[in-house]
Specification:
The chain is α+β, with helices and mostly antiparallel strands. The chain contains five helices and ten strands; from the N terminus they run ββαβαββαβαββαββ. The chain has a five-stranded antiparallel β-sheet, with no helix packed on it. It has a five-stranded antiparallel β-sheet with strand order 6-3-5-4-7, sandwiched between helices. The protein is elongated, with a radius of gyration of 21 Å.
């Protein structure tokens, strides 16, 4: 049982304070129930995915990041076929960056799937592709990955890359920009019960810790009282707060308080 969640990373601490306790760790006999509303379930999972992606972006891609888009010439509508090509591309690109050109880059990324108007799948990535990478080589790696997939008829595709050094988009805004593609697919039946984002294993992940505090009267909870609790319990000073927010719990309708502290 907990009502405070702390995500700790190198540069900041993020807290979510729930008005009512959250219960976890219980196991029960599984009952198979046919899902009546796949769209509703997708919205719930996307809400968690947005928070997860936002945290990973803030930790791993605060500066010197690249924004990449991968598209198919063929009208690829199967996630399985598209993901097979994407996996091949990632393996080839990682090898290229680490060995072939002696760049010694440990490639890391966060990728989401989107569909074009014609229905074809394409990918958006935030990654650490360096500015000095040969752009032609990256295009050829993507085309080779497409050509190696026998399920794709038209053997061609495009790559678009935008670097943070020549972009006015900052990491926080870029995180919002990327996660919007999750919400765009709420009504896409093809993506229901499918994971529509992926990450590399080498990303730095925030450390999560749960705590239980006794709020005497949850109706009197406010930012001032929460800051006082965090200050006394975690030695966090109010002047180090970089962001605060209050939003509704989509399941209970109660308030959730969000606070960020810089280290």
């Amino acid at each position: 049982m907990y009502n405070i969640v702390r995500h700790s990373s190198i540069k900041k601490d993020v807290f979510r304070i729930y008005t009512s306790p959250i219960f976890s760790g219980f196991s029960s006999r599984k009952i198979t129930v046919k899902k009546q509303n796949l769209i509703h379930n997708r919205k719930r999972s996307n809400s968690r995915a947005r928070r997860r992606i936002q945290e990973l972006i803030n930790i791993n891609f605060e500066s010197n990041f690249s924004f990449m888009t991968l598209t198919f010439r063929d009208n690829v509508t199967s996630i399985e076929i598209a993901n097979k090509t994407f996996t091949s591309f990632i393996k080839r690109l990682k090898y290229y960056l680490k060995h072939k050109k002696n760049l010694k880059i440990d490639f890391k990324y966060i990728a989401t799937i989107e569909t074009q108007k014609r229905g074809s799948i394409h990918y958006h990535l935030i990654c650490n592709l360096p500015l000095y990478t040969n752009f032609t080589d990256v295009i050829n790696i993507w085309k080779k990955s497409i050509n190696s997939n026998k399920d794709i008829s038209l053997k061609d595709g495009t790559v678009k890359i935008k670097y943070s050094s020549n972009s006015d988009i900052q990491a926080d805004n870029l995180g919002i920009y990327l996660t919007k593609y999750l919400t765009k697919n709420f009504n896409n039946q093809e993506f229901c019960e499918k994971k529509i984002y992926s990450t590399s294993r080498n990303l730095i992940k925030p450390e999560r810790t749960n705590y239980m505090f006794n709020f005497e009267n949850k109706k009197e909870i406010n930012n001032k009282k929460i800051i006082k609790i965090l200050n006394s319990s975690f030695n966090l000073e109010p002047q180090n707060i970089t962001k605060t927010n209050v939003y509704k719990n989509p399941y209970t309708g109660e308030d959730i308080y969000y606070l960020e502290f810089k280290k």
